[in-house]
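hi got a favour to ask and not much time before my train. below you get a single protein, a line of residues and a line of whole numbers that encode the local backbone shape. could you go over both lines and see whether the tokens make sense for that sequence. a few lines back from you is plenty, here it is:
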Amino acid sequence: MRHPSLSRRSRRAAAALTVSLVVAGTAVACGPEDNGAESGDGNARPRQGGTLTVLNSDPQQDFDPARLYTSGGGNVPSLVFRTLTTRNREDGAAGSKVVPDLATDTGTPNEDATVWTYTLKEGLKYEDGKAITSADIKYGIERSFAAELSGGAPYLRDWLIGGADYAGPYKDKGKGLDSIETPDDRTIVFHLNKPEGEFPYLATQTQFAPVPKAADTGTEYEKHPVSSGPYKVVENQNDGERLVLERNEHWSAKTDEERKAYPDKIDVRSGLDSSVINQRLSSSQGADAAAVTTDTNLGPAELAKVTGDKELAARVGTGHFGYTDYIAFNPKVKPFDDPEVRQAIAYAVDRTSVINAAGGSSLAEPATTYLPNQKSFGYTAYDHFPAGDSGNPAKARELLKKAGYEKGITVTLTHSNAQDFETGPEIATALQDALGKAGITVKLKGLEDNDYSDTIHDVKTEPGFFLAHWGADWPSGGPFLAPIFDGRQIVKDGANFNTGFLNDRAVNDEIDAINKLTDLDAAAKRWGALDKKIGEQALTVPLFHPVYKRLYGKDVKNVVISDWTGVLDISQVAVK
């Protein structure tokens, strides 16, 4: 999946070198590299009150818990929708942990992790003062299966017994999913069709937010969803173009250790041009002094301008999100069916030039592993095809000769025409230049963005050599490796992400074995080992992990950016 908080349009704007101080919501290259924990007033003592303004490019559309990803919208949904579990609201790596939210703990599994039981905290209430019950959570999940409310995370359909054939409560005549039991108002039990040790992560998704059946208005629910969090929706204009949130008087901090809820009001204004957002944040005048943005990144030109401004440099947050940009191969297309050809390309890559094309070392970190370089993913360092900083063309030529291409080869690299730092022309050109030094002549084939995505994710049209990227739905190796390398997830009649068509029994079995583990630290180590093993096949060439820089207004306090989302956590911000 793409980074949910960094839109395609935002990335294009961030990469543009001609924009004037476009801080579109992230912050500064010369700023501190510690997630803003000691930057300027960002850590001044917070107080309650005031209005926080959120300036974003993309509208907060479909504001319905059934249709959202938890991390979507730069943390805005979690201000209104509480879930069984949530992310730990702390800086950096500490923020990669899953913690209780509506539930008393992160869940109790049976012996093989096919049954998970949760108990709700006492005293939980909606914005109207009514009690939140386990039946409300069950109903909230069931309505996410309705076709008209699609868009959320797909895991429940795959994991819950009966989920694959369930069509939602509007068609089941009140029967509901038998695999979700609510023996009393505070207990909810999930029955899965396979072991899933990472179910506590899944329970952070907004589909686990409670929805009172009597208040459900179907597709109209997004206009005024019933809040279980510290804020309620008082205004929703033009499908999320402007979203105004005010305090939910029935929310109690005693039941919520994660959300600080300092501001009295949060005004989310979206659909704005990136340059406008960044100029407003840099000027920080009037209400914009208490403003942030969560969906646009600083580009190289913006960083260069901010570098010389001490005041702006102090208002920067740095975020890391589990994300990898890489070269993908289709081994069914010659010459990429030959492992030595794939290895030769891996050796020929000049990561320094790729990093420069991605905006420089402040915006991208070189990658030789598929998993992101964070402990929660199980990061295990390896470099099977060491190319150094600038490539190893001699080794690449040697491998090509062994493969029967002594005079070199000519290949076509498919990329997006979008002007972004991930899969666009700049990255493609950098690779073209580097591979040319190894006798690999690269022809570039650029496709318009939508056509590009459709082409590379269709087994019938997937090219042999193209740029790709992947981000995890939660900070673990599971949602990173399984969609890309589990042979049972090859999709022949829809969007396919196993681009290397790997269907290795040993890999599939190891994925199943890890999924049984409820010790997430132990699971992480196994994911890292599996990544290292798969990497030997050179089905992908990792290039870099992006870094997110975000500027915030001068009156913004208590800046927290976790490695779970990589964006400033609105639930922690104060403006006084």
Q: What stands out?
A: The longest strand covers residues 540-551.
